[in-house]
Amino acid sequence: MENLRLLGGRSSSGSGKGRSHQRPVKYGFRLVKGKANHPMEDYHVAKFVQQQGHELGLFAIYDGHLGDSVPAYLQKHLFPNILKEEEFWTDPARSISKAYERTDQAILSHSPDLGRGGSTAVTAILIDGRKLWVANVGDSRAVLSKKGQARQMSTDHEPNTERDSIEDRGGFVSNMPGLLKESKCARVGFALHV
């Protein structure tokens, strides 16, 4: 797990790219700051690492809302939580789901320290350049480019269309003045090219 320490950084308006050392796989990301009158609140991860004899491509965008403490927490904890699941190598889908849930519960339990803000999350894990696992919460998006054709790999979760599900789980949807407009100004995402 020591390879996971310096995976990404606090994002600013910018972009980055890289490639696998073992397969013909390249990645890129682009982050655009919206017109909101506050600093960028997004964090990202984009890196290939070696883990238990496998090459893992770890990619994520954490789009912060009302502060950067939750996306910073996600950047530090979500991938390690996924990779320490006992079933990760045999059942990645279940492990990813469990780690998302566990990380969400940890964020809720730390809410006094993390503040009122929140974050979307989109993650992709590429195992040995052959198997891709994508998960997301919110409206950040993953796109795969294959032979020049873009394929959306995640489904945006919009609070207004999923209000019933959110409220059934004890959450709430609020349209605070200015936030809806600001959130539409910034779009974050990443692409893998295979």
TrEMBL record:
Regions of compositional bias (Basic and acidic residues) in chain numbering: 154-169
For this chain, one GO molecular function annotation is:
protein serine/threonine phosphatase activity
The highest taxon in the source lineage is: Eukaryota
Pfam families in UniProt:
PP2C (PF00481)
Q: Which residues form the PPM-type phosphatase domain?
A: 26-194
Q: Where is the composition biased (Low complexity)?
A: 1-14
Region described as Disordered: spans on this chain:
1-23, 145-169
SMART domains membership:
PP2Cc
InterPro entries, per the entry: PP2C (IPR015655), PPM-type-like_dom_sf (IPR036457), PPM-type_phosphatase-like_dom (IPR001932)
SUPFAM superfamilies reported in the protein's UniProt record: PP2C-like
GO BP: signal transduction
| Protein name (Swiss-Prot/TrEMBL) | PPM-type phosphatase domain-containing protein
Q: Which organism is it from?
A: Vitis vinifera (Grape)
